[in-house]
Protein 1
Amino acid sequence: MSTIKACIFDLDGVIVDTAVYHYKAWKRLADQLGLSFTEHDNELLKGVSRVRSLEIILELNHVTKTAEEQTELATQKNNWYVDMINQMTPAEILPGAKEFLEACRAAGIKTALGSASKNSSTILAKINMAHLFDAIVDGNHVSKAKPDPEVFLKGAEALGVSPAECVVFEDAIAGVEAAINGGMKVVGIGEPAVLNRANIVVSGLDKMSLELLHSL
Ligand code: BG6
Ligand code: MG
């Protein structure tokens, strides 16, 4: 008998592909500052908080900014990012994401969001999926970023289940580490070679099933 009672989902890269919007907004900021920033660099920002993302871009360019300047720059980037996510529609839900959440709920498995983003409510409203989560924990509710397990532990607590009863779905290395650090099972979404610490890795939620979930 499976002990899995809840599934906790990362947002960016698992439910929707917002990495492209993050990239466009950071690229615009980098161009404005005369800094180099490539799509390859963008990989380093996955699962990482907004402030830390800016720090990484500055570090890659050996540039320093005061705390005040950093806040201003991160706000500017976020304004551009928000303009883009405000245009999102349910057509941008990644294949199988909605169907898998619905299948979990129909089977009595609880669902939570566990995201580093402070924009999760905007995105969930735009793609019309907020009602599919029993609990939502995002960057507005945590003080410690992934790989710290805080975001997932708060999700489990909100659902009233223990960490060992949870399965996390994550596309970022830091997120996989966070789930493991929280004592949870984890399904990697992406490349097995990259997410090699996950219990299993699939290319997307369209490859998930309740059977596979209960086999973990
Ligand atoms: C994560 C993304 O989900 O959210 C990161 O993978 C992003 O790339 C982080 O930096 C913070 O997002 P936001 O929306 O609060 O700027
Ligand atoms: Mg992600």
Protein 2
Amino acid sequence: MNVHVSAGENADIRHDWTRAEIEALFALPFSELLFRAQTLHRKYFDAREVQVSTLLSIKTGGCPEDCAYCPQSAHFETGVKAEKLMAVDAVLKEAQAAKDGGATRFCMGAAWRSPKDRDLDKVCAMVEGVKAMGMETCVTLGMLNAAQAERLKESGLDYYNHNLDTSPEFYGEVITTRTYQDRLDTLSHVREAGISVCCGGIVGMGEDLNDRAGMIETLANLPQHPESVPINMLVQVEGTPLSEEQTLSPLDFVRTIAVARIVMPASMVRLSAGREEMSDETQALCFLAGANSIFYGPQLLTTANPARDRDRHLMDRLGLVPMPA
Ligand code: SAM
Ligand code: DTB
Ligand code: SF4
């Protein structure tokens, strides 16, 4: 990571944020908020650089969880067909294509509540294979126990993605099949195994500003900030309970990115799902607000992401360059 200042003990890196302080950041005049976010972004990173990851759904659909945003939940009719875990060879072929396309990290996602041990053997082989290609690795497989996190670490895993998704208060409106504490437990197993943490959430689910502040408060007050903080704009998928939700104003999305950058200045803030529906100008504001990583390639897990040439063109016009691994 191209951090210009060590992320050790310093006044910028705090774990004692209050909800009121974070709400006050959201309430700043837009230019003041972006100025503060930019200032910290430039202190910790080269503001021209954007980390580029490619996602692959290695096990799609049929998930027993009821996350109200998710096209892969078996609870909703969304037209996503349940598939089996992909073969290791097929995954490695996709990883090579991602590397050839310019990605430095390969993120593999599975629609599981938690992995079975037999499945984990295969995922570990995928991680080993992707590492051997010289790419960083990330997986998101649902809940993990301590032993599973250890096994993934031994296979060479760099990052584990597990999102808090929203505030503790709003969480129950979105997911009933596992608790907020379950998520925090998985995050601590990942951390204890020595794997870097990728953890963020979704906005635009009908939450209010206090919930957006509550999500960021929880992330910032974890014992260690997640190295990577994905901020997803809800992708509304027909058949999910949130498909008709009122869309969030792009400026409120930009504010969320800026606040995440300010309270977790040394973390990578990922402008995640929702870019396909976003204007180039909104994305430009997100980069200005401190976002410094994206998913690259035409598909997220089951929904669309901008085509590679649209992203290359956007990065060229903004003078952004891929971050070296
Ligand atoms: N099943 C695993 C889990 O939930 O941890 C891993 C895959 S899950 C699809 C990964 C993340 O994708 C979710 O935590 C959620 O934040 C995000 N996500 C899923 N559907 C989304 C949507 N429609 N819009 C935005 N983000 C979404
Ligand atoms: C994350 O926070 N966003 C990515 C990644 N982590 C795994 C997933 C977005 C999924 C969007 C809906 C879909 O494509 O199925
Ligand atoms: Fe399953 Fe993950 Fe989708 Fe929730 S977000 S339904 S756990 S795939």
